[in-house]
Structures are given as structure tokens and as C-alpha cells.
From TrEMBL:
The keyword Hydrolase applies. Residues 495-508 have a biased composition (Basic and acidic residues). It comes from Nocardioides albertanoniae. This is Metallophosphoesterase (TIGR03767 family). Residues 488-508 are annotated as: Disordered. Coiled coil: none annotated. InterPro entries: CNP_phosphodiesterase-III, Metallo-depent_PP-like, Metallophosphoesterase_PPA1498. One of its GO terms (molecular function) is hydrolase activity. Keywords: Hydrolase, Metal-binding.
């Protein structure tokens, strides 16, 4: 499909019962946002063009360290649905995350120039949650997708599928039939014979043709994006028992307590997890949980462009990268190591951020901040045993706003397409590649000398808009994944064009104007 301003936006294209099919809609023109400055007569010259991806969630769908059973507590026909904000431990399309990643690499490589300014694509950035569960095999798959090479998105028994979609549990989608399941029964989900074999086939990824930067996300660092690794979790990840059901004697109150406890990092919740009924799977040492330092160091290799994809071996999970002679990236690590899916900074990183922005102020450079969490999600003040003070969004925003060089903050986390003015700079949030609409962005910086324009254009992966029914290659499987994401039975009950994941017209193809601080 490519850049949506040129090829048309993917929209609902009819229904089969309750199940939405997709189609290619009309082009969506760019909207000028004049919250911070008026649009200039001439946008000026391109300074930098970037592909922004976020929340790939490359997933070992068969891992025993995943707790898909908890997601059933949010199903619309359960007594607990209204008592829990979100769970997010199972999606019908999560078995196809590697294929979506490969299709997005293909789409980025097809960008010949920025759709607004016409400048060459200079680099890409992925703003965290590149893996789903902080596992070594997921880290290897994600890096292979973006750097290039062959990967096989399979684990455990390499000859047989062992994930929840093969279990006789009616609350999970069974794409190959057999036992009744509710997604097919009341959601209209399709039968796809051969899918559980096709999704485990080897993938040859060309890798991104431009240099790319990496960012740490909560799913890259924490179990299911929430829980710090400990010895018990480490054993479960590489072991032979996968939790698939809750004890029959548990009350609804106990189930809600479990989810709330996991979000809050309560050790008692981990004890409750050990009570879940298990199913035997093939153990796999490649599923082991990685440390933060391993996540950093695995990015540092001879072929990485730029060096370490921004990271340094043995270094910090935050860094500065000068993209060219005018623009600097300041990349933050907003993951709270004490747990929880929302973010914050420690005081040392805030001081570093303040100093780097002071430096770019003096040098009259433009600064793009990048992190996993958006500003509104920087509310996690858990500090663990002996941990220092956590710095939250209001204080971080005030620090950034003191520096005239800061013009843009790129992030993800919320799985929603959003754009917000923040006083003297813009915040641009990318959607997820696992949930609807499975898009990235092309972000261009242009200046006429007085007004800086940040042009953002939505970018679809290379899967066709309408799934053909085929599963014989990466593009077709990615197309199916997008269609499944549009039919999430836990999603908002609104027409697809009003889905918050896709944002509004003022969040998608937009030109964001602000005064060029160098003027």
C-alpha cells in the first residue's frame, strides 16, 4: 500500500455478519495545524526525513511465559469486563507479528522521498516495545527483521504448533477449525486452514536500507510489559508448563485482584499466577528473559548503522545521536525497572536530558526527543526497594519546555495515533504494528528560515488492503493480521473510521507549524 496520502487510506469495506472486511479508500490530504504558528506561504527546504515505527510487539506466541488466559477477563460477556481497564495479553493476530514487521520493512524500503518535502529518507526509528515479552528469541527476531536476514518465528516443538489457538478453549480463535470458538461463532472470524503452519515458516527480511535508531520499551524489559523478571519467571519462560486456565474456585473479585496486583507490581499477584492450571509444552532455552544490558548490547554489532543503532556496548539505555548538521535526537529510556506498564525517568536521566538540551540550545540545533511512553503516560512513581525518586510527566515537560531547541517528541506506547501541541513544541505519537491500524509514519522537518514545519504522513505496511484469503507469503499474512486487528472483540464499539487507534484527520496526515527557534 505505501504512504497513504499517495495511495489512499485503508478503510472498512463491508461486513460479513459482524466481521469487518477492509478496502482501499480515498486519499487523505494533509491538514495544517496552526496551534503554534501560521502556515508559511512556502514550506521551505527539507532538513530531515524519518520513518517512525513503534510497538512492533514481535511475539513468541507459543511461550509459557505469556498469560493469555488473563485476557479473557476483559471479554465483553464477562462479569469482570467493566472492572478492569485493560489486559492485552492475547490478540488473534499476535501469531503474525513477525510477518507484519517484515511487511513494514518492505514498505519503508519503498519510500523514495518524503511525500511533502521531497527529501530523501535519512533514517528510521522504532520507539520501543519492539518485542512483546522481553525474550531472547523475540529480540533476535526483531533485530533480524530490521537488520536483515532469515528468521523462523517458531519455538518449542519446531514440528508442531503449541500455542493457545490449538487448545479446546472456546474463548481463543481456532483458525483451523475443530472445536467451536466464540471469535468464529459470534465474531465472524474466518477459517484459515494451514495458518498454524504458515505462520511458523522461515522469513527472509531484506532489513531496513536506511540507518535506524532503537528505543527501550516496557515490553522489551518486563514480562508482558509489566512485571520485572525474577528467578521464578525465568524458570517458567524456559520450562514445560504453560498456564491456560484459572482455578474454578476463584471468584471474580480474586481475578480482578490478580490483574490489579500485576499492574501494581504486587508480589502476591505472582503467587496467584503460580496457581493457574498448566498445560505441557516443549521447553526452549531461547525463550529466556533478557536483561536491560543485554537488550542494549545485542544492538551493537559490526553491521549496525548507525553504530549500535544509537546504543553503546555496556552503556546506558538513553543516548544522543546527531542525525546531520542541523538535527539531534535525544533518546530517553522511560521504562520503570520497578514494574508497571506506564513510564517515568530517574533523576540522573532528567539531569542528563537537561544538559543535552542546553547543549543543543547553545549550538542552535533542532532537537527531536524520542521515547517509548508519551508524556501523558509518564505517571509511574513506583521506585522498588531502595529505588530513588521517579520523575513524572509534568516535571519532564517543564524541563523540555525551557529549551528552545526542542521542537518535536516522537513516542508510542498507547497504540493510538495522536498529535498534541505542547507549548513551544509538538508531540507525535505513532500507532502500533500489532493493533489497528498497523501503521507507521513518515516525519519530515522543513523550514523556510522563520517557520519550521513538521509534516507527518501515515505509512501502511506492504500487505494488501483487502486480504485475498491467501497465506502463501509474508504480504498476505500481514494483510490477514491487519484485518484481524480491525475486528478485535475487546476494541471500542465504534465504526472503524472512528477507532481511536487510527486517530482523527488532525492526528494523521498533518503539517505542524511552529516558529523556527534558530530564527
Amino acid at each position: 500500500m505505501g504512504v497513504t496520502s499517495e495511495d489512499g487510506r485503508i478503510v472498512a469495506g463491508g461486513r460479513k455478519g459482524t466481521y469487518v472486511r477492509l478496502a482501499e479508500g480515498s486519499q487523505e490530504r494533509h491538514v495544517s495545524r496552526t496551534d503554534l504558528a501560521q502556515r508559511p506561504d512556502d514550506l521551505g527546504d527539507p532538513i530531515l526525513t524519518v520513518a517512525h515505527l513503534s510497538d512492533l510487539h514481535v511475539c513468541d506466541h507459543q511461550s509459557p511465559a505469556r498469560a493469555e488466559v488473563l485476557d479473557r477477563l476483559k471479554d465483553p460477556d464477562t462479569a469482570t469486563a467493566e472492572l478492569i481497564d485493560q489486559v492485552g495479553t492475547y490478540r488473534a493476530q499476535e501469531l503474525l507479528t513477525a510477518q507484519v514487521g517484515a511487511a513494514m520493512v518492505e514498505a519503508v524500503n519503498e519510500i523514495s522521498e518524503g511525500p511533502v518535502g521531497g527529501g530523501p529518507l535519512d533514517l528510521a526509528i522504532t520507539t520501543g516495545d519492539s518485542t512483546d515479552n522481553g525474550q531472547l528469541n523475540e529480540l533476535d527476531w526483531y533485530l533480524t527483521l530490521l537488520d536483515g536476514g532469515r528468521l523462523t518465528p517458531d519455538s518449542g516443538d519446531m514440528l508442531h504448533y503449541e500455542g493457545v489457538d490449538g487448545l479446546p478453549d472456546e474463548r481463543f480463535w481456532h483458525p483451523e477449525g475443530g472445536a467451536y470458538d466464540r471469535p468464529r461463532g459470534y465474531g465472524g472470524f474466518p477459517l484459515v486452514p494451514g495458518l498454524l503452519k504458515a505462520m511458523r515458516r522461515a522469513i527472509d527480511s531484506p532489513g531496513l536500507e536506511v540507518p535506524w535508531l532503537a528505543v527501550n520499551g516496557n515490553h522489551d524489559a518486563l514480562l508482558q510489559g509489566t512485571i520485572p523478571t525474577n528467578e521464578t519467571i525465568a524458570e517458567v519462560a524456559v520450562g514445560a508448563l504453560k498456564a491456560i486456565a484459572m482455578p474454578e474456585h476463584w471468584t471474580d473479585e480474586a481475578k480482578v485482584k490478580l490483574v490489579a496486583g500485576l499492574v501494581a507490581g504486587d508480589p502476591e499477584a505472582l503467587t496467584m499466577l503460580s496457581e493457574l492450571d498448566p498445560h505441557e509444552v516443549t521447553p526452549d532455552k531461547r525463550r529466556r528473559q533478557t536483561t536491560l544490558q543485554e537488550f542494549i548490547d545485542y544492538h551493537v554489532h559490526d553491521e549496525a548503522k548507525p553504530a549500535g543503532h544509537g546504543f553503546s556496548a555496556g552503556g546506558k539505555p538513553y543516548y544522543r545521536h546527531d542525525a546531520n548538521d542541523q538535527v539531534t535526537f535525544v533518546v530517553l529510556d522511560t521504562v520503570n525497572p520497578a514494574g508497571g506498564f506506564d513510564g517515568s525517568l530517574d533523576e540522573e536521566q532528567l539531569e542528563w536530558l537537561d544538559a543535552e538540551l542546553a547543549s543543543t540550545d547553545r549550538d542552535e540545533r533542532l532537537t527531536v526527543i524520542a521515547s517509548h511512553h508519551d508524556v501523558a503516560s509518564l505517571v509511574n512513581d513506583m521506585n522498588g526497594a531502595g529505588g530513588g525518586r521517579r520523575v513524572l510527566g509534568d516535571e519532564i515537560e517543564q524541563t523540555v519546555s525551557r529549551h528552545e531547541s526542542a521542537v518535536l517528541w516522537l513516542n508510542g506506547h498507547t497504540h493510538r495515533t495522536a498529535v498534541r501541541p505542547r507549548g513551544s513544541w509538538w508531540e507525535v505519537t505513532a500507532p502500533s504494528l500489532v493493533d489497528w491500524p498497523q501503521q507507521g509514519r513518515v516525519v519530515e522537518l522543513l523550514s523556510d528560515g522563520d517557520v519550521l514545519t513538521i509534516a507527518t504522513t501515515m505509512l501502511d505496511h506492504a500487505g494488501p488492503a483487502r486480504w485475498s484469503g491467501a497465506i502463501d507469503d509474508v504480504r498476505h499474512l500481514a494483510s490477514l493480521s491487519r484485518e484481524l486487528s480491525a475486528n478485535d472483540w475487546q476494541g471500542p464499539k465504534v465504526p472503524l473510521d472512528e477507532h481511536p487507534g487510527g486517530g482523527s484527520a488532525k492526528d494523521r496526515n498533518v503539517m505542524l507549524h511552529l516558529l523556527d527557534p534558530r530564527a
